[in-house]
């Protein structure tokens, strides 16, 4: 249990660290933000396959393969299904915040939806780290958690930008960023208990987490990285991220 707690603190704390750094850094270069995002996407991609998906799909048991493939698709579908309801909830509460002095309604909508998207994918990221811990594989737990945490630092930083632009004070924006880290800590414990209680369907849960991470990479992280840094810088950063994660996987093998 101590390992799970430390992993949860590691992945959630990375988001919180990013929020604190963003609070003190008035402005960062968009190219640098995009490069870090793309590097982290490469790390997440390698971690998803090397530590979550391939150990399941290479299993000789047909049932494990079927559960794994179903889990991958289910991971993407889960995020897709959660997106619209959460967007509607966010928009329904917009009027409470739009009374803030100097707040532009459109900027507020965009800021809150951005935070909602961050919250959506923080939960499965924590789930991925927790499932690794539940599988009692320290190497897998460490590499997956490292990939998630690396991506979380710049993520925590950029949460502040749209909120401040929409009229939030920097302190309030920091509080929101810290809250997204708390969500990830909760996801880590959820993943751990789910894996521990359901060993027979562990292949499904592992690939579910992997599918969530792949869906996030395709629909969120890469898109933001290309927009901020351009395709060339983003592409090279992505490749370096993949290589770094594969080296880490090899080192801990």
State the distance separating the first and last CA atoms: 23 Å
Cα shape? globular
In terms of structural class, how would the helical and strand content be classed? mainly alpha
Number of structural domains: 1
Task: Determine the mean pLDDT.
Answer: 77
Computed over alpha carbons, the radius of gyration is 18 Å
The largest β sheet comes out as:
none
**Tally the helices: what do you get?**
10
Uncertain segments of ≥5 residues (pLDDT<50)?
Answer: 98-103
Say how many strands there are.
Answer: 0
Question: How much of the sequence is in beta strands?
Answer: under 5%
Q: What percent of the residues sit in helical stretches (DSSP H or I)? A: over 70%
Order of helices and strands: HHHHHHHHHH
